[in-house]
Request: fold
Amino acid sequence: MRITNARVIVCSPGRNFVTLKIETDEGLTGIGDATLNGRELAVAAYLEEHVVPCLIGRDAHQIEDIWQYLYKGAYWRRGPVTMSAIAAVDTALWDIKAKAANMPLYQLLGGKSRTGVMVYGHANGTDIEHTVDEVLRYAEQGYKAIRAQSGVPGLDKVYGIGKAGAKVYDPADSSLPGEHDWSTEKYLQFVPKLFERVREKLGFEHHLLHDVHHRLTPIEAARLGQSLEPFKLFWIEDPTPAENQEAFKLIRQHTTTPIAVGEIFNSIWDCKDLIQNQLIDYIRTTVTHAGGITHLRRIADLAALHQVRTGSHGATDLSPVCMGAALHFDLWVPNFGIQEYMKHTEETDAVFPHAYTFEQGMLYPGDVPGHGVDIDEKLAAKYPYDRKYLPVNRLQHDGTLWNW
Ligand code: CS2
Ligand code: MG
Reply:
């Protein structure tokens, strides 16, 4: 089966998405997500200018060879742009192979290891009581695991909290990078109070999660982890930037609160030391940003050796194509932990019709051949690209640029 054509489709049904569609001489097509929030067109150009010409005429069945060809063949290995582009090709080819086999993708990976995929939803509130209400609302909807983020007293804008009245939190909301302010002192004082109150109202039946979004130093993260121990969190996420993997040793020496890292990683090399030294408990790399199903599988297998489980990033800036592929992966992967799930808008769901469904805190990928997600190209064409940036973060007391 030969690849005859590959096209990049950029659309913005509420937010920007980059999709690669591969066509074959047997009439089978497959799609992959290549969305890199805030830098979308870099990946679109990488695909159009440098990858697509190399795909035409290749055997669509040779997924591994094509992966190696694009990875080693670029010479310039790794990086989010390269790896998102490779991921889109890889995901589209797995989609095609599964359609050719007339099977849902999870069957090709090795079949089901579980009945469904446990997901966590996002409860975001402007203050403690608002956040508690949101957590309870998610619990009522059947979620077994809930991430809680709250506005911090004295801080104007923080990660996870949308504009007043916004139904869904979307950080990439302005035509130039927006500015948030930050105070580690205010945050560290506040977060234990938040989780104390959430546990008081919710009890201990549900899993609770929290995203620190790279804002603390290792010793501050250690202190946060320690202060949250009574509230038995499922994880704290990205407690400190992870370019320096060694930094996590210090956090580990001080706390038993589980740690999750990886949404901005793009290869096994970014997580190798964290995994091998058991410095984290969950690896959050995605199909889209970490080289597709082929590479994610390699990361998960390394993680399994060290009892690290998966917890893939699933924010709405990853398209439904990523979510569909991730769910097949999650259903199979032996060391599955949890999957992040934020509902896409109705506009996005209409552009990307999909087979996955939600019920009682679980997602199910469905049983149609392939990964079960399609793109309505006519509808997509009605939503042209709309440049948007992620925010930056500055220290409140003197304006120093901090980690967002
Ligand atoms: C986040 C994301 O979902 C998460 O855990 O950290 O919301 C992240 O900020 C965005 O995906 C950035 O594009
Ligand atoms: Mg995160």
